[in-house]
């Protein structure tokens, strides 16, 4: 049985099992929409398009900065450049902030999580995936 928080999400980080069809599978759960994978657990992320990835929409990430060394930002089907305030916030908090396609971000997050690294991911939901 999985340990779930009040919102139905896990209270700890787990690998992403699959992505696509507008959501993710992880920890024997399925979620429609975007996702934050943080040291505090797996959380729904109210971001539906790349232009909504902002310093403010990543506030949960910044709140856990002391436990994160690397943040992968899945920007959808393609790699997009992050806004300067996002990159600056990462630098100010000693977080390496790497944008990449959602698929690449999910796969790389899984590898670093498996290595027990201090990793987080902000993943924009995509239709096509694995």
Automatic annotation (TrEMBL):
Identification of the protein by name: MTH938/NDUFAF3 family protein
A Pfam family of this chain: DUF498
Database matches in Gene3D superfamilies: MTH938-like
Domain of life, per lineage: Bacteria
InterPro entries with a match to the protein in the record: MTH938-like_sf (IPR036748), NDUFAF3/AAMDC (IPR007523)
